[in-house]
């Protein structure tokens, strides 16, 4: 039985390479940790010569990684997939959709924007059963399905988007050897983290590197802080209400979370370069302070993608590692995890688009990227041994094992808030305004939305 | 290569097409109403009524499609909701009136309007005056004009090296902070200082526009008749008097043209703010606010269009002034 | 008399000084970028560009060899190697991040378990231990070094070697040339009509042109792309040429008309009296006389189209091989925002061609043309 399977795989591999897909990252059938059966299943779709255009935000190394995933779709189905990445994806997709020349599939880094386009009628609902598939196959499936389910122009909810590629946000990065040199322990609770912060200052060091600069999106890293702290100060229900604005932005609970962020970011001695540096430091520049000599800071809170911006040659797990951004011991809120993800949505009725979404439901699409770098998935059907390094696996386990899992709230809020007023509000807050003023201003903007 | 031959082909076709249009249409006109023969007088009159439109026709077509049509489209959009479906009347304008960011943007734009044209014209005049009187004047002019040739992406990076901030105690790599700390002050995050940061952004535009002002004003200064200046010198005017009492009034018209052109640039100012602060820390301006609402986060074309129309309304005084000028010219 | 000569000389000095000051102020920022772009990548972010000509000190750590590189010498296990790269001078070193400058070159540090480390002034280190080393990775040796100034073209090699910059250069050229030539032709005819022909509505048209100068480009993007899609042009070179032509026309007409109005009336009138047609007047008199104005507008339009990012991202495709230079550079900046050396070199690449064109053509700009928009007030 097994032998014949191998034979089949080998034949298909042969056929695939004959089809000009000799450059597949992992030769089909070569490593039996991969789910090659799911790859073989794809070959049933014959899409030879059919075209599919995909627009997304991934550039540089990320584009190469994603292309290596698409290669398997190309090889199996013969479809001609054309991916273009844009640095200004958010603007590009709006212009193209409004002007009537959208790509077949768009990859949204922020579901808020996808929801907005769905409401305006630019997105096409995914095939029936896709929502159910996500609920069944993703860890915390209901949350993930909801992440891609929006109201259409008729007000009816449909599954418009398919989440693929997750980020874990509740991580604090540090250099283990620096901790060892100073004799610091990894904090298990928020109380310990705060005590450690004060201890480092007492020892003459600077605990944190915080940079919220990001060009046009300046401020977003601070929203992650606030969201993580919301989950550590309030119940998940409160968090959900906050995201849907049932709990007003200027509610004392939210203001308290902002002020808790201020405890870290607005105390001059806690941040490398002082509070003034927070808003003017680019988030991509910020983690470099961990690696200088002597270290400019000891800790950096950022999502799972940040190692791409570590100095060249940094070995994750040895030169740098992360620990879970801990919860308060005296609040009984479990171990909440904040995450995010990119979602794929269809903007045309091109049937190849449906085939591509079906491809994303196959384990192989996840495994090819997992086995390389910078990819975590909540898909329960993949072989987690395939993660390219132990750190990714650790993140994947955090994702699969979270007691409370919530999405990046700013991604779910209306774009004008989550990709606008919330960002600029955080910049104002770091710049010196009070938490109450900032929260009030954000709520005021929310009130003007229809 | 194929691509370049395509481009070359287009240039040839385009140029040939344009010439053929202008030449051919004129020929046809002269053939229909020949300026010789029985009805020469009426024919010339008729042809002269049509001819301007032949000359100006293609331009009008382009302007109508590429600028006028979008303006009317925007007017229509500004009266509709975010998706352009439902009629909302003046709601978008009402929202504008109450929006804090809009108020901030308008005030900033006015500030830019006050400072930048004046400063660029002043420096341009100064540069024109001094570079006209030295031997290496043309080289100096090239250097001062050079920023005009730099893209905003490039300018953004260049000024990043000027305004960069490092925490106290670290070595400053931004020029301004290096100078500032050399005098014993703590380093500043220049682009986040409330209100003051506007001026640091304006410095970039002044840096770019001064060259433009200088080139035009220099030409005007050279155009002043020698006799006027000689007469003033004979009357014993000192260099300052010569400059402010004789030369400046002589080129007043040109100064106005320069001022107007820079004013228009300032009204549309977008790139510098977009690249350097994206309107945060109280530096928002109208064009960037409009861009925000049109393309970012939750695109709301209605609100974006309403802001665009406000920008256009702000230029009305300049238009009126120009129409008057044009009238006066035609009379004179 | 001598007093006047003295004042004169002082005045000449003052003027030269003022010019020098202005030139310095206006070139220093760009010069800083140029200097930064040829510096060593580690030095750009470590010290200001004005220190480029001096040696700089740098602090970093070097990893000693791992346990597998140990050699047994008698009862000692020894790991040796060097902490310096070519040209560096060792100032101080240390063994923990808490005290990275604890030791002078040549001193020996006693470590735990009887191990000891010596780093000599030439950078060679010797780590000894009475027992076998354990663990896979070597310890960190913190070094403070003096680095001589270094000029390098590596940054440019990285940027130019980046995928697709050559293609992008071609694309930009393809966009720029037609988008410069076509609007000039159309504007020249229109400007002549507005300057020298009598017809009803002329003043109004002039006013409209001036008014259109202020239309913010951003508002035209979506309606026009929609139009292009509807009439079948779609995204591509044709679309971007047309768009740039439309957007460039108001300024072209405005500048050219201002110039043409300033041409001597007598020449035109006498040609008319001689029976020349308007087309002949335009071709034989106006065009040659307006050459400086045409050339200078050409330079403006060229610079504007070459430097444009917004119009290109909307009207051209977004695939990597369709990008223009500014697009590629922006992409570089987006994916490598923290790398100053990439920023500096790529920014300089992006401004190189405009600067070249500008320096080559400036005599038209400075001398002739804009002289016209002057018409003496």
TrEMBL record, chain A:
Gene3D superfamilies: Periplasmic binding protein-like II. Its main location: periplasm. GO terms for cellular component: periplasmic space. It comes from the Bacteria. Residues 1-21 form the signal peptide. Transmembrane segments: none annotated. It holds the Pfam family SBP_bac_1. It is found in: Periplasm. Keywords: Signal, Transport. Belongs to the bacterial solute-binding protein 1 family. This is Carbohydrate ABC transporter substrate-binding protein. It comes from Paenirhodobacter ferrireducens.
Automatic annotation (TrEMBL), chain B:
Its main location: membrane. Keywords: Cell membrane, Membrane, Transmembrane, Transmembrane helix, Transport. GO terms for biological process: transmembrane transport. Residues 106-322 form the ABC transmembrane type-1 domain. The chain crosses the membrane at residues 6-29, 50-69, 110-131, 143-162, 199-221, 251-281, 301-323. One of its GO terms (cellular component) is plasma membrane. It is a multi-pass membrane protein. It is found in: Cell membrane. The keyword Transmembrane helix applies. It holds the Pfam family BPD_transp_1. Belongs to the binding-protein-dependent transport system permease family. This is Sugar ABC transporter permease. It comes from Paenirhodobacter ferrireducens.
TrEMBL record, chain C:
SUPFAM superfamilies: MetI-like. It is a multi-pass membrane protein. It comes from Paenirhodobacter ferrireducens. Keywords: Cell membrane, Membrane, Transmembrane, Transmembrane helix, Transport. Pfam families: BPD_transp_1. PROSITE patterns: ABC_TM1. Residues 169-361 form the ABC transmembrane type-1 domain. The keyword Transmembrane applies. Belongs to the binding-protein-dependent transport system permease family. The chain crosses the membrane at residues 12-35, 175-196, 203-225, 237-256, 285-306, 342-361. The keyword Ubl conjugation does not apply. One of its GO terms (cellular component) is plasma membrane. This is Carbohydrate ABC transporter permease. One of its GO terms (biological process) is transmembrane transport.
